[in-house]
TrEMBL record:
Name of the protein in its database record: NUDIX domain-containing protein
PANTHER family, alphabetized: 8-OXO-DGTP DIPHOSPHATASE-RELATED (PTHR43046:SF2), GDP-MANNOSE MANNOSYL HYDROLASE (PTHR43046)
InterPro entries the record matches: NUDIX_hydrolase-like_dom_sf (IPR015797), NUDIX_hydrolase_dom (IPR000086)
Domain named Nudix hydrolase: residues: 1-130
Source organism, top-level taxon: Bacteria
Length: 136
């Protein structure tokens, strides 16, 4: 088994979750990314969100939501992504940066438009009443 270690930001507003689509990709992913050698979860979260969305995460506000594992999208069978998720406050204006082509707010109705691990996270947030069912 190959493991991809990722950190993700859960940012839900009015029942819709912030998601991103990278250049050349056909599905949406929660913002975040892979840990650099020696980085903590929060260092990774702050760096990745700044790189992807041009905002500053308030590290002291970060709260661990959960850790999820699933087959990695667009990788060979047996490649598992482990997504460690945090909520956190931020400063700045959200905008796509670097490899991010699109920023979107998705609801549970968009579940089929995200990666397998994100689908698990959508399920959890929906069960918890944090994601709304309709696309509105």
């Amino acid at each position: 088994m190959t493991l991809i270690d990722k950190i993700a930001w859960i940012q839900v507003d009015d029942g819709a979750i912030l998601s991103t689509r990278s250049v050349g990709r056909d599905v949406y992913y929660l913002p975040g990314g892979k840990r650099e050698p020696g980085e903590s979860d929060l260092e990774t979260l702050v760096r990745e969100i700044r790189e992807e969305l041009s905002v500053t995460i308030v590290a002291g506000s970060a709260v661990h939501v959960g850790t999820f594992e699933a087959q990695a999208h667009a990788h060979p069978a047996g490649t598992v992504v482990r997504m460690t998720c945090y909520t956190a406050d931020f400063h700045g204006e959200l905008r796509a940066d670097n490899e991010i082509e699109e920023v979107a707010r998705l609801t549970y109705a968009d579940r089929d438009r995200v990666s397998p691990v994100d689908q698990m996270i959508f399920d959890e947030l929906f069960r918890a009443g944090r994601l709304r069912a309709d696309a509105r």
